[in-house]
Request: fold
Amino acid sequence: MEIPQTKQVIAWKLKPLLDSRDVTRYALQKASEVPMNTIRAMYDGSTTRVDFSVLDRVINALRAMTGEDITLADVLEWRPV
Reply:
């Protein structure tokens, strides 16, 4: 059985997440120790690759900063096109 190819988009939700919680990119960069260029690209939605350890550090930093149970679904979403 062949799986049909469809276009899909994996989109970053970091900008609305940070903006709604008044967390700056700088604060996230300091807490996660992820390079600012990487944080900026995730925030802008321009990055197309991310290392799992980077994603883990970002999510853990956001959990610590907000006190919320931030998950992968809060940071990324998959949308069929």
Observations:
- Strands lie at 8-12, 76-80.
- The longest strand covers residues 8-12.
